Amino acid sequence: MSAVVPLPAPRQRRPAGPINTRATFRMRFSTMAVVGLRMMFHDKLKMFGTLAGVIFATVLSNQQAGTFLGLIYKNVMFVENAGADVWIVPANTETIQAGKLVSDSNLMAAKVTPGVAEAAPILFGNAVMSLPGGGSQPVTLVGAKAPWVLGGPWNIVQGERELLGRPDTMFFEDSDREYLGNLNLRSVRELNGHNVVAGGFTWGLLPFGPSYAFADFDLARSLLRVDNDQLHFVLVKVAPGADPKDVRSRLQAALTDVKVMTRAEYKSSIVRYVLTKTPIGITFGTSTLFGLVVGLVIVSLSMFSAVVDNVREFGTLKAIGATNTDLAKLLFVQSVTYAVMGTLVGLFLVTRLAEGIRSAKLALQLIPELFIGTSVLMIGLCVFASTLALLRLRKVEPAMVFR
Amino acid sequence: MNQQVAVDVKNVTKTYGSGATAYTALKGVDFHAEPGEFVMLSGPSGSGKTTLLSILGCVLSPSSGYVGLLGEDISVAKEKDLPRLRLQYVGFVFQAHNLLASLTATENIAMLLRLRGWDQKDAVKEAHHLLDQVDLSDKYHSRPGELSGGQRQRVAIARALAGSPPVILADEPTAALDAHNGLRITEILRELAKEHGHTVVVVTHDNRIFHLGDRIVRIEDGLILKE
């Protein structure tokens, strides 16, 4: 075998001879990256077609996942915002809804449990408002104790929290005012057969069911016709420095007829309930998957088609010394570039879409974790989609360039 | 091993397919070329000249026989080693130039130099130098679509010379060109090859350029007929 001659200095061409071909991984990668990007941007029509696939998948999956997260938030919003660290609920409770009652002895026991700073009862039930023009509309009635912090209204846009102390005064959902018969401040409505006054409004407190309406505990007891020694939930605020999990364990040990959960545990329970016992999870999961599959197919076919269209160029690359691994690097760079560009455009569009359709009733929850997850998913999807093209490339014979 | 022989082919056969559909394109070919030699390989369509060129270019492996490039036996090379052998020994000029449409003339050449281990800065300088040598100093940044057929083929020659490989293989380099451009391309290829000692094998039907060859080797029906 002949000796390998070192590389010459530029512009001083050495005589013909075997070439030291030991290009580093980085050299070959950067070379293939440049070639891949140039090829990609050269065929703009195909590039935009492929990008459309990524954008479509990004927008659809984020829109569906954002709507799903929005619905999940609707289900957990009360637990999230009620101000309690620990909840005492009827046994076997999985989600938050009007249901069984518990004895007020649980409230008394909670108040004297070490680590508990404050404990307050709430009533939680369905009520029906009679409308002035006839007909009726349901609301989810929440009764809380003064000063109406634990379990009281939040996101108050009109009125003061203290107004709940006035006789027969309630807070309703601002975005439901028309729905509740053009409700205004000081409007009087019949709720469960009893006249109440609108003393204030909240915004965005629309769970999956009827909107939340807040009343003082005693008014709610009267409206829901609950006995004096009964309540729906006990909300516990733990003392500063106390661990909610420790307090929960202590309460559960003392209160055997009820279920005690930390806020996080209750939220998890609700999410699990929504995912496993309602069609929400499967519905949105399917449509999110559909968006991803359609995106995958578009990107796969576009990249495959780009390879088929440029098969002679890939054959040339192979003929002059590029390996299948080099071409895989080229496709990898292309697919990651498609993913990054398409995801950025897709996320911009879905953010604008979310702003456009944002309302109290429908709010897409576009959280940073979703954006990061989508970006990673799209890169994975595009790299996976490029494998179809790579399979085709592996079959390209360098000898084709002589035909 | 003979260090003086750049290309050494002994009793090479190549059969495509198997069984009843098997087709033997080369039936025991002997061929050699010295360093700096400019050899024309001629023959009718289907004679086996492109198959021989593909084997010399480490693009195809022979079915049997010996193929040596500067003494290295490439006939026993595994398929995974062929790309390295191509980079190490061979420069190609294709019939249809086969430049990458998305790259400029400079990038088409520099890309190959990068695969051959040159750093980016030196690769670009060398590409410019090669383009100067083929009279394309004003086309550094032109893409193939902006060049005439003759200019494209000159870029292809510059690419084939990139890094100074010992063997240049040209497949019908004048087929897509008019007589004037075809002659000029062959002259450039010959001048540059002679200047630096490349062994050049040109497959051609074009008898207008035969006079530029040091030897004309005729192949027919898978066999070398005469020189």
Explain how this protein is built:
- The complex is a heterodimer of chains A (403) and B (227).
- With 403 residues, chain A is α+β, with helices and mostly antiparallel strands.
- Chain A has 2 domains: 25-72 and 280-402, no CATH class; 92-256, no CATH class.
- Helices cover 49% and strands 17% of the residues of chain A.
- In chain A, strand 3 (116-130) and strand 4 (136-144) form a beta hairpin.
- In chain A, helix 7 (280-309) packs parallel to helix 10 and helix 9 runs antiparallel to helix 10.
- Residues 6-10 of chain A have low confidence and may be disordered.
- In chain B, the strands form 2 sheets. A 6-stranded mixed sheet of chain B has the order 6-7-8-3-9-10. Chain B has a 4-stranded antiparallel sheet with strand order 2-1-4-5, covered by helices on one side.
- In chain B, helix 5 (149-161) runs parallel beside helix 6 (179-196).
- Classes of the chains: A alpha+beta (403), B alpha/beta (227).
- Chains A and B meet through helix 1 and helix 8 of A and helix 1, helix 2, helix 3 and helix 4 of B.
